[in-house]
Amino acid sequence: EVQLVESGGGLVQAGGSLRLSCAASGFTFDDFAIGWFRQAPGKEREGVSSIRSSEGITYYTDSVKGRFTISSDNAKNTVYLQMNSLRPEDTAVYYCAAVAGLDGSLMALEYDYWGQGTQVTVSS
Q1: Which long-range contacts (CB under 8 A, 24 or more apart) does 6-10 make?
Q2: What is the pLDDT of residues 55-81, one digit of tens each?
């Protein structure tokens, strides 16, 4: 059974940092791309970043480039999202997702498996 479990969310002041973790199980990590998405109240789910660690391929949405960094620890089957210089507009529920056979994508429809989400709140 494929499982994705996010952790690391919380409340932080603007300019602060958080590191999100996505622990994956039930599939061969190297065969999958892992993406981070976020959804704020009243807004559509947005692709933030993705990684295909076996190929060293990463993608970022423009609004987080230079502030967020995605990485993976293949030995732990875990993907991280380091978020620096956080802004109030980064406030959302953050989800990780997995899909087989892609190098990565910021399109939510392409992902098959989803975690339960973790709340990130950035105060001004």
Answers
A1: 6/94, 6/95, 6/96, 6/115, 6/116, 6/117, 6/118, 7/118, 8/118, 9/94, 9/118, 9/119, 9/120, 10/119, 10/120, 10/121
A2: 889 999 999 999 999 999 999 999 999
